[in-house]
Every structure is written in C-alpha cells, then in structure tokens.
Amino acid sequence: MIVETLEVGPFMENTFVVGCEETKEAVVIDPGAEPERILAAIDKRGLNVSRIINTHAHIDHIGAVQAIRVAKGAKFLLHETEAPFVEGYERQCQFFGVRFGDKPEIDGFLKEGDIIEVGNLKATVIFTPGHSPGGLCFNFGERVFAGDTLFNGSIGRTDLPGGSQQLLLDNIKNKLLTLPPQTVVYCGHGPATTIGHEKAHNPFLTGGFSFF
After folding, report:
1. Closest CA to 65 of 43, 32, 24
2. In what order do the strands lie in the sheet containing 2-8?
C-alpha cells in the first residue's frame, strides 16, 4: 500500500495520495492546496487517480480539488451533507481570507458502509459527523484516514457551522475506538497516531479535558 502525505497550505493540512502498489490505482484524500505538489507526487509514482475522496469540505481540505479533478479526470466524492460547504466555497474564501483554487464540482456522494476499491485495496466509509455535518473516515484495514475527526492528542474543533462536540465524541468512541488498537490514524493536521495510543492518552477521550 502506497501512502504519501503532503502537508499543504497555510493551515498545514495533510493531503494523502493512497495507492495500490500492484495496479498503480490511487485516490487522493483531502487535496487542500498546492495542487502542483500533489500532482507531482502522483506523477512521480506513476499512479492513476480516478477519484478524489474527501473527509469533509472545509476550505483547507478542498482548495486543490478542482485542479486535480481537471488534470486527472478524477471524480470528486464526499458525503451529501457537505455539499453546502462546496456550494459556499466563495463565502469560505471570504470568511478565512484565503483562496487556494477554483470552486470544486461534485461528481457523486459517499455514505456510511460504502466500499471504495483502489486496485487491490478496499476502504470502508465511516460516517463521523461532529467536526462537520458530513464528516467521513476511510478505513483501509489497519489504516484509517480520519480527516479532522481525530488528532494525535486532540479532536476536531466543533465551533464551526454544523459542529457538535458531543456528536463528535460519540462517533469517535463508537466508531473509531472500536477499531484494533494497532490501527494507524492519519489525521487531517499534524502527525499520525494509533487507535490504541489515543484510547489510552487522548485527554478528550480519557476524561482529562473538556471544552466546558
């Protein structure tokens, strides 16, 4: 399994290129900015990207979607309840005072339990709203791409539109912490971690910290 992490843009967002070593089929997860770097990483490995799959649609995770979509002829997929954030791309640009690229065009939607095939790899879609209303995680066996749901030592912010701290915590505990402890968690920002480490040490999950 090929996993390439690129930290992009001023929000230091993690974009992932995930591919099958045997078939060279790949997906791009959360291309947030700097499309030239992402495309260079794809081309360097000789990968064929047919889909862009997003954990959610905040501006720092979708800014490079359209450039890669056009360059590779890839379909852009995410949860249906994230569509208003895509449609409101210009408002997001104005609110945060940044612009990374053109507004993305959505090609289809993902939902809980969908299976995404990437060559010989398979990912299960996990619905984890809380940071955003349509938050998703992608579970490739012992690797899960969690977007801004779960971080190394922290959790996603819940003060943006559609956020809910209780919902986020419930989804983390009921859908992510139930994965095997050795599962590697690739986060939307910051370093990777494991389910076991977060279960034992994350203060938001052990009762050591609360927003309230």
Report:
1. 32
2. 2-8, 13-19, 25-29, 48-53, 75-79, 108-110
Dihedral of CA atoms 57, 156, 139, 44 in degrees, nearest 10, equals: 60
Stretch (H or E) spanning 60: helix 59-62
In order of their start, the domains of the chain are 2-206 (3.60.15.10)
Q: What separation, in Å, do the N-terminal and C-terminal C-alpha atoms of the chain show?
A: 41
What is the pTM for the complete model shown?
A: 0.94
Q: Where are the beta strands (DSSP E) in 9-96?
A: 13-19, 25-29, 48-53, 75-79
Tell me which amino acid residue 7 is: E
Tens digits of per-residue pLDDT, 167-186?
A: 999 999 999 999 999 999 99
Q: What is the CA radius of gyration of the chain?
A: 16
Strand partners, 2: 19
Q: How far is CA 169 from CA 16, 154, 186, 192, in A?
A: 24, 11, 18, 19
